[in-house]
Amino acid sequence: MSSLLVVGSVAIDSIKTPFGERGRCLGGSATHFSVSASFLTDVAVVAVIGEDFTAQDEAVFHERRVDTSGLIRIKGGKTFFWAGEYGFDLNTAHTLDTQLNVFADFKPTLSDEHKNAPYLFLGNIQPTLQREVREQSNAKFVAMDTMNLWIDTTRDELAKTIKVVDALIINDAETRQLTGEHNLMKAAKSVLSMGPKMLLVKRGEYGAAFFTKDSYFAIPAYPLEDVFDPTGAGDSFAGGFMGYLSQADQIDDATIRRAIVYGSIMASFTVEQFSCDRLRKLQPNEVLARLDQFQDFTQFDLDPGMGIVVHEELAPGAV
Amino acid sequence: MSSLLVVGSVAIDSIKTPFGERGRCLGGSATHFSVSASFLTDVAVVAVIGEDFTAQDEAVFHERRVDTSGLIRIKGGKTFFWAGEYGFDLNTAHTLDTQLNVFADFKPTLSDEHKNAPYLFLGNIQPTLQREVREQSNAKFVAMDTMNLWIDTTRDELAKTIKVVDALIINDAETRQLTGEHNLMKAAKSVLSMGPKMLLVKRGEYGAAFFTKDSYFAIPAYPLEDVFDPTGAGDSFAGGFMGYLSQADQIDDATIRRAIVYGSIMASFTVEQFSCDRLRKLQPNEVLARLDQFQDFTQFDLDPGMGIVVHEELAPGAV
Fold this sequence. Notes:
2 copies of one chain form a homodimer. By secondary structure, the first copy, chain A, is α/β, with parallel strands linked by helices. Chain A has a domain at 30-46 and 112-311: 3-Layer(aba) Sandwich (UDP-N-acetylmuramoyl-L-alanine:D-glutamate ligase). Helix content of chain A is 37%, strand content 24%. Chain A contains 12 helices and 13 strands. In chain A, the strands form 2 sheets. The first copy, chain A, has a 9-stranded mixed sheet with strand order 5-4-1-8-9-10-11-12-13, with helices on both faces. A 4-stranded mixed sheet of chain A has the order 3-2-6-7. In chain A, strand 11 and strand 12 form a beta hairpin. The longest helix of chain A is centred in the last third of the chain and has 18 residues, at 253-270. At the A-B interface, helix 8, strand 13, helix 9, helix 10 and helix 12 of A face helix 8, strand 13, helix 9, helix 10 and helix 12 of B.
């Protein structure tokens, strides 16, 4: 039985970046999520594909031993297609074309085995569908993603879904859009008041920030000299995060912090090449090496035993 | 004798933010720098003021025991004046008015005592002047700031100055503008090839990143729910950084990392109110409390002894 289930999109992408383009490649939230999570746990994917989805497209799931029993192929249908382009800042994807195809009628139904996966990730799909999946599941920990489209068009449904998950994993622009608050701390408070116990904010090249009602954690991103294609960064981040939690099978502050670091490192690989290309070649020792480096890049010790003082005699009123 | 010298501007500012406005208040790079550094070390300021600079304007330097023997008052002159406005994102100041006044003829000459201050910060002034100050000084560690104006208009002079300092402390937009590289890692390499041993990049609400030829360090920012006025954030960051180095009187990686955290915490107070208002009231125990919190907000331990593994059996080629 899989420890982690993801429901989301499996897509064919067409991507342009300042560094190159790829006319047809494997994409989708559930794809990037599951391939990333597979480095840490047993993961199953629930999604829909068309007849055009080739054995080559599917190969990565098998290479990574992702359970594809929930990958439904629609006869005569075409796989969800997305074409996008990035500018030099690589922060925002400009959608050139979206063809929902078989995804338009996607009504995920979980198998009994999938219902019992203890960790569940609701990838970025219509919020009502996300909630229906959540209701079918016996998972003990549920996280979800969403996007600007659903915040704009289905806010009420989205709010109902956010209410019934443990963690919301979105980017900073979405956090601001969802709450109408520019300040991230205020926005986070507002999100938490909607119901979830946790908010994990993805900040791209600036890292990630994690909020609960009474704790806060933030990390910078793993620094990269060559970001080739940011597609899938957020989903592989969520995949590393949920994959780690699922393996640890423990939800406490220290475990969550580690999970965020793992997520960040998995995303740092994903963006180095198109599609899942980098993760298909990724060796476990490369993950471990980057985790070590990340610790080195971020650690500091404020207590050097050198008697550093903040000048007490200069306290206001003391002069 | 002061341990740390700053040469820069002392100004009268007029500031509008979405949260309020202040028609006339104390500002300037040397002001924010020295007030911040004064919590950690003995600091002297070299700058020029006009006859309009009041005893009240000057009071903060005396409260903080900043050595003002290098504060030159020009008879009949007017103090450098800057008026600026911030939008809701608070990231970019829109300059409404700049009157150089006495600052136009500023030719800093260091006293013998000031020449021997072991730590020197060249605040954001014309790069030729910065270099002239650097040449007068016997400091063992010199850092400098600059701005988009000098990158645009005096690039060659700026490059000559950057070549003769130990550390450049600028924001990410300036780093990109100076090098023409969008990617920060590439931009940092390019800056280091210009001469300085260290580059410290200020990233506003996203924290700071530090680069040498063979090391990297990054921190997120101290999270604030209410950022009132970002004016002086960069200078108080540099003041905390240099103030800490000056007190520790030691330049190694661990000390520099601590100094960056101190800088970040000092800046987090500065932006909570207009001008130096917050730092004038700041108590040493508030600094220490925020340092503690910051450590808590950022620490993680990747080695939980739980036997977490990256799936070796799924290495490419192993399947």
